[in-house]
Amino acid sequence: MWSFILNNEIETMKNHLITICVFLSTYIQSQQLIPLNEKAYSDSLKTVANSKVDNNAKANSYFLLSNFYRNIDSLLSKNYLEKGKALSANTPVNTAKYHYYEGWHFLESNKEKAAVSFQKAIQEFSKIKIKESDFFIASSWYNYGVTQKNKEGYPFLVKILVEKSIPQIEKYKDHKTLGQFYSQLAIILTYNAEFAKAFEYNTKAIKILEKNAPHSQELFFAYLNTASNFCYQAKGDEAKKYLDKAEKLILPYPESSANASFYYGKTLYFITKQKNEEALPMIEKGLVYAKRSNQNLLTQMFYMNKYDILRKQNKLNEAKNVLENILSEKTLIIDANNRKTFYNQLSSLNEQMGNLKEALVWEKKYSKLNDSLSSENVKLELNKLETKFRTAEKQKEIANLNTEKAQKELEINKKNQYLWLLVFASLFLLILIISIFFYTKKLAKEKEINHSQKLKEIAQQEELKITKAILEGEEKERERVGKDLHDGLGGMLAGVKINFSAWASQNLEPENKQNFNEILNQLDYSVTELRNIARNLMPESLLKFGLETALKDLSEFYTRKDLNIDFQPIDVNTNLPLAVQINIFRIVQEILANAVKHSEAKNILLQCSQSEEVFLITIEDDGKGFSQDSSPTKSMGLHNLKTRVDYLKGKMEINSDHEGTAINIELNTHAIS
Question: Which UniProt keywords are given for this protein, alphabetically ordered (predicted)?
C-alpha cells in the first residue's frame, strides 16, 4: 500500500513538472526581446520616439515600445504599433517590421491573427535582400511555429526550428539569437523527458551567450532552463549552480518582471530538495511580480506549485480549492497534456478525500483524454527530427571536409604546375621536382584514405544511433502497452469482479451462486492471463531484480510437462546497464519462444556466462532442427536476433540438424552506455 502511494507521488511530481516545462517555454518566448533592465530600456525608447530624429528611427522605437507593453497594457501597445505603421507607409523594411511586431502583439491573445502577421512578415522580408532580413525571417518562422503548437504539436515546432529558424539565423551570424533558439529547442526536449539531449543544447546556448551576450536576458533564461532540467531529474545541487548564475544577472534589477521567473526557478529548486516550507515564500514573492506585470500564465503556475505543497501537507480542502480555481481560470488547460494532468490530479485528490463518486468522474475524463493522446509517438517524432538535424550538421562537416580536400588538391595542382616549369632549368631540378611530386601525391592519397575512413566512421555512428533509437522506441512501446494492460484493463477487470461479487451477495439466492462463482473464476483466469501478457511485454523481475532473475523466470515460464529447460547462470554481473540487460533478455526470449513453438524438443539447455566485458549465451535443444532459410517467420526472427546482436557488437553462430539446434552468441556489454 505504501509503495503504491509513493509511486503515485513520484508520478504526480513528474506530470506536474512536465506541465511546468512547456509553459516555461511559452513564457520565455514572450519575454525574449525585453532586456533585464526594463526601465532604462523603455525610457531610452521613449526618448528616441519624442526626439527630432528621422522617421525610420522613430518607427523602430514605436514598434519596440509596442512589444514592451503588449502584456502590460494592450491598448497602449496597440497605440504604439499604429504610430509605427503610420511612419512606415513608403518604407518596405518598416512595413515588413510592422507585420512582424503585429504578430507579437497578437501572439498571446489571438494566435490565428498572429500566424497571419508572421507569414506576411516572412513574405515581405524575403523580398528585401539585406542581412537584417535573415534575423526577422528566422524569428518570424519560429513565432509562427509557436502559434501552431496547440494544433500541430511539438514535432511541428521542432521541425520549424531545425529546418527554418536555426539555418536562417546561422546565415545572419547572430550568435545571441542562435543561442536563444538552442535554448528553446532544449525546453521542448525537456518537456518530452529527453533530459540528456536538452542539457546538450542548453550547454551550447550558454556557451554562445556567455561569449556574445554575457548580461542578456537570453542568458538569464538559459540558466533557468538548465536549472529546471536538473530539477525535473531530482538533481537539486546541479540546479542550484545555474540558479546562482541567474541570480547574479537579475540581482541589480529588483523591479524587473523577470524576477517572477527567477522566483519560480527557486520554487522548483526547494520542491526538488523537499523543502516545501521554504518554497512557499518564493511562491508569494513570485506572485507579486507575476501579477504586477500581468503574467497570467506564470501566476497560475505558481498556484499549481502551491496546490502541490498543500496536498503534501495534507491540507486537502485548500489544495482542492486551489486546483479547481486554476482549472476554472483555463490558462493552463489550453494544452491537452496539461488538461490530462489536471484531470488525473483531481481524480486522485478526490479519492484521497473519500469523494469516490467525484473521483470516478474525473478518472473517466482523464482516461478518455489519455486515450486520445500518444506522448510516446510525439517523443519518437521529436527524436526523428532531432536525429535528422544532427545528420544535417554531420553532412555540413562532410561538405567542409570535401571543400578542404578540393582546396588541397588545387594547391597540389598549382604546385605541380610550378615545379614542371622548373624542369627546364636543369636535370637536378627535374629530379627534385619529380621527387617532390610523388611525395606530395603520396601524402594526398594518405589524406584521402584518412578522409574516407572518417566518413565511414561517421556513417557507422549514425547507423548505430538509428538502431539505438529504434530499439529504445520498441522497448518504450512494450513498456507502455504492458503498463496500460496491467494497470488499465487489468484494474478495470478486477473492479468488475468486485462489483459482481457485491451484486451477487445482495441479489442472488444461494442455489444460484455456484454457477455465478464459476463465471467469477473464469474472470479471474482472464485477469491472470492478461497480466502474464503484460509481464511478458516488460517483465517486472528484470527491472526489480536484474537479468539473472528475469532469465530464470523466463525459463520457468516456458517449462512444460513435456519440456524441461535447464538454466545455468555463471558469473552474471548484476551491474550491467539496463539497456544491455533488456537486449540480452530479448535475445534469449526470441530464441526460447522459437524453440518452444517449432523445435518439438524435450530438453533445452540455456547457459549464460560473463567474463569482464564479454557476455556468452549458449542455447541447445534436442529437437528436429530447422533450415535457416526455410520459414519466413523464422527468417524474421533471425533478422531480429541479428539486429540486437549487431547492436551489442556481438557474434552469433547457429548449428542445426535433425538431432537438434545449438546457438552460440558472444556479446560486448560495453557496446552501449
Answer: ATP-binding, Coiled coil, Kinase, Membrane, Nucleotide-binding, Phosphoprotein, Transferase, Transmembrane, Transmembrane helix, Two-component regulatory system
- Same domain (yes/no): 183, 161: no
C-alpha cell at 642: 541479428
Counted domains in the chain: 4
Residue 592 buriedness (CB in 10 A; 0-12 / 13-18 / 19+):
buried
Q: Are residues 110 and 180 in the same domain?
A: no
Global pTM value = 0.55
Indicate the residue type of 355: N
- State the Cα–Cα distance between residues 239 and 241, nearest whole angstrom: 6
Give the SS3 label for residue 546: coil
Output the CA–CA distances (angstroms, integers) from residue 486 to 137, 367, 387, in the order listed. Answer: 49, 15, 33
Tens digit of each residue's pLDDT (9 = 90 or more) over 245-281: 999 999 999 999 899 999 999 999 999 999 999 999 9
Dmax (CA) of the chain:
122
320 plus 420 within the same structural domain: no
Residue 3 lies in a domain: no
Of 162, 134, 191, 240, nearest to 15 (Cα)?
Answer: 191
CA atoms in the 13 A half-sphere facing the CB of 334: 17
- Alpha carbon distance 111, 147 (integer Å): 5
Compute the mean pLDDT over every residue in the chain, rounded to the nearest whole number. 80
**pLDDT tens string 412-468:** 766 767 666 766 677 778 888 887 877 877 787 777 787 777 777 776 666 666 666
Same domain, 483 and 572: no
Look up the domain containing 117 and give its range: 53-165
One-letter amino acid of 43 = D
Least Cα distance to 455 among 389, 407, 395 occurs for: 395
Question: Sheet containing 564-570: which strands, arranged edge to edge?
Answer: 564-570, 603-611, 614-621, 660-668, 651-657
Residue 321 lies in a domain: yes
Mean pLDDT of 305-334: 84
**What are the cell numbers at 510?**
444461494
Shared domain check, 317 and 277: yes
The letter for the amino acid at 544 is K
DSSP for 397-432 reads HHHHHHHHHHHHHHHHHHHHHHHHHHTTT-HHHHHH
Measured distance CA(640)–CA(617) in Å, rounded: 16
What is the per-residue burial (b if ≥16 Cβ within 10 Å, else e) of 423-441? eeeeeeeeeebeeeeeebe
**Residue 653: CB atoms within 10 Å:** 10
Whether pLDDT at 325 is above 90: no
Say yes or no to pLDDT of 328 above 50. yes
**Does residue 217 lie within any of the structural domains?**
yes
pLDDT of residue 558: 86
My answer on whether 133 and 197 are in the same domain is no
Question: What region does 588 belong to: left with phi over 0, alpha with psi -120 to 50, or beta?
Answer: alpha
- Domain end among 450, 471, 492: 492
- Same-domain status, 178 and 320: yes
Q: Are residues 92 and 149 in the same domain?
A: yes
Higher pLDDT residue, 2 or 473? 473
Q: Residue 293's domain is classified under what CATH number? A: 1.25.40.10
Which domain-ending residue is among 492, 519, 552?
A: 492
C-alpha cell at 450: 584518412
Task: Check if the beta carbon of residue 102 is closer than 8 Å to that of residue 117.
Answer: yes
At 382, list the grid cell.
521529436
**The amino acid at 316:** L
- Is residue 511 assigned to a domain? no
Q: What is the pLDDT of residues 594-624, one digit of tens each?
A: 888 888 899 999 999 998 889 999 999 999 8
Q: Is the model's pLDDT at 528 over the cut of 90?
A: no
Rounded CA-CA distance 298/287 in Å is 8
* Those residues with Cβ within 8 angstroms of residue 243's Cβ, 6 or more apart along the chain or in another chain: 223, 224, 227, 262, 265, 266, 269
